[in-house]
Prior knowledge:
Elements: H1 2-5, H2 12-17, E1 23-25, E2 28-31, H3 41-51, E3 57-61, E4 74-79, E5 84-89, E6 92-97, H4 108-117, E7 123-126, H5 133-141, E8 145-150, H6 153-165, E9 172-176, H7 179-186, E10 191-196, H8 202-212, E11 213-226, H9 233-244, E12 248-261, E13 264-274
Parallel strand pairs: 2-3, 7-8, 7-10, 8-9, 10-11
Antiparallel strand pairs: 1-2, 3-4, 5-6, 11-13, 12-13
Helix pairs in contact: 4-5, 7-8
Amino acid sequence: MLKKALEGVLTTEENNELISAFDQIGNIIIVRIPESIISKKKIIGEALLNQVKIAKSVFYQASAVEGDFRTRDLEILAGEDNTETEYKEFGCKFTVDVKNAFFSPRLSTERERIANLIQNNEVVTNMFAGIGMFSIMATKKKKCTVYSLDINPVASKLCETNIGLNKLAGKVISINGDATEIINKQLINKSDRTLMLLPERSDEFLESAINTTKNGGIIHYYSHIHADKKSEAGKLSEEHYLQTTPVQSEILFSKIVRAVGPRYYQTVVDVKIFK
């Protein structure tokens, strides 16, 4: 759709340089633009706003997601300069702030997979919960309790808003603060299942994930793995986890979640731990 929208705006060569997919979140479009055609970013923004009828805003992503709060710089290209929107996924409603709190529509398949794995009456610790997407989808599908942690106060506030939108008060418990500190104070041996969706820093927080997980509980360990062959990434992520973990673990499953760069993948390893 992106390339089609820009026919006549960019040359064929320029169009081929442009990433063929963009993120559409509610009525907001976020686009990444190669440096070689950055001078045409405003034209690209206006073309997208005209092509995608429900869009009200088009932003250029000017930085990667970074920092403890996992935020990114966005530059308005066309339409309203408003980074907050409504988003729906698998029957759940969310208020999203695409600039000030972490959110990715590209994780929807993984969110559904985790929600389907959770069993009734489980207690789950979601260590890096953002606005509560995984937490809310899980409790919408299953009779469970999720502790939804995030250090970003904007993300935690939006999580509380989304708990209300989905009528899940008492099922999802939003806690703002550092995951390690929260776990050490409140959640030792509390969870049957723990999510670690911070792939770039998983090794740093693995001990905390183990601390909150009961003996025999499950950890979903996400990481970034370099692999020359895509088919090797899952196995490499398993080997990395086993080299890193200080506890006996049984590998249950592994997969690539998504590509994040040339020969670079976000992976997940599901493990049962024994303490």
